[in-house]
């Protein structure tokens, strides 16, 4: 993470802790065991105080931000005080919001000016928990989603596509439509080839070309039901034309790279590119040249 807030950047985020209560098989930033909350809390208060007042959006990420407990609310209050017009995005596994009081407090301090990005790994407890690396994670995450929705908190549901869940993308889409229709957005996310993905590569790595049929079915289904659907971290040349409108320039500007062949691509300026931190490059890159 960077140590400055840059209004020209597409990614201004406060890194609040490297600790996490999940152990996701494809985590791009494996959790730390040291207590780093005090250090990052003090640092982030200063970052907020020096941020441009016209900053449109700021993220809160980790690790797992809710491990800050009440301090998460104090940080959000500080943002609201210093940057009253800045929208807040919190990335969380959602489990702490299974506590209804905690979800209510989050709603109150965020003042309907925030969204929480929460991963759903599967449409079943067994598979979700296997990917999350913690038994019982599914039940807590689902309850957290319902508690946030009951308090009118906007939710971006995130599905990180991996070898464990890619064949069930259509079923996950159906599950969302029946059980989580209140979410503000559904984002399908390609993996970053770093962190725990390297350690668990045989279990989790899958090339986008392998799951394109399932992805297209899932996106088309949700889109027809008027869900706001987004595709993150997927280069345009790997997607069928029908999915281009869903693709976002989602990779942080300081983590983006393009292959040499991308220099000739007429869609380069519209494309998210690749992770500079990834150890491998997706198969099938094919620049648009006319």
In words, what does this structure look like?
This protein is of the alpha/beta class and 290 residues long. It has one domain (13-275): Aldolase class I (TIM Barrel), CATH 3.20.20. Helices cover 33% and strands 14% of the residues. It has nine helices and nine strands. The protein has a seven-stranded parallel sheet with strand order 1-2-3-4-5-6-7. A two-stranded antiparallel ribbon has the order 8-9. α2 (70-82) runs parallel beside α3. The radius of gyration is 19 Å and the shape is globular. The mean pLDDT is 96.
Q: Keyphrases for this structure?
A:
alpha/beta, TIM Barrel, 290 residues, 7-stranded parallel beta sheet
Q: Secondary-structure blueprint of this entry?
A:
Layout: E1 13-17, H1 37-50, E2 57-62, H2 70-82, E3 87-91, H3 100-110, E4 114-119, H4 125-132, H5 137-150, E5 154-160, H6 169-179, E6 185-189, H7 196-199, H8 201-204, H9 208-224, E7 229-232, E8 256-257, E9 274-275
Parallel strand pairs: 1-2, 2-3, 3-4, 4-5, 5-6, 6-7
Antiparallel strand pairs: 8-9
E-strand count: 9
CATH superfamily: Aldolase class I
Q: If you compute it from the alpha carbons, what radius of gyration comes out, rounded to the nearest whole angstrom? A: 19 Å
Kindly provide the name of the CATH class. Answer: Alpha Beta
Q: What structural class do the secondary elements suggest?
A: alpha/beta
Largest sheet: 7 strands, parallel
- Specify the number of helices: 9
> Helicity level, as a percent range?
25-40%
CATH topology: TIM Barrel
- Please give the alpha-carbon distance between the first and last residues: 37 Å
Question: What string, H for helix and E for strand, traces the elements in order?
Answer: EHEHEHEHHEHEHHHEEE
